Amino acid sequence: MRRRARSRSHTHANSSASPSNRAQVNGRIAPKALTRFKDRIRELTQRTRGVSADQMIGTLHRYLTGWRGYFGFCETPSVLQRPDEWVRRRVRCFFWKQWKRGRTRFRELTARGVSRGPCRPDGGFSARCMETEQ
What we know:
- The protein is an all-alpha fold.
- It is 57% helix and 0% strand.
- It has helices at residues 19-22, 31-44, 53-71, 77-98, 102-111, 127-133.
């Protein structure tokens, strides 16, 4: 005789799998996990690390994909949005360090769609030049 598989969530009064408790679960990322995340991103995006941009992007992509897969349950989008903005700034700083000469910076920024207004081809840049990149 075959037995039927049945749910055992009814056997425990304080089970976290019960439907009433599911609505109360708030996906939140622990501060220590965010600190470890930032430390690892700092390691991967060091501007003087001596790796190519493609290699850095590949390693960063692997790490971020895994991190997003693990912490993807988070229900508060601002918790994931702020680290995303921070990572983008780190990557911009990585490229800014690689583009040492003003002409290179001008060429690379205009190739990426930044208007020529705030950026001068002789290498003179204002703070507005980096703001428009975002």
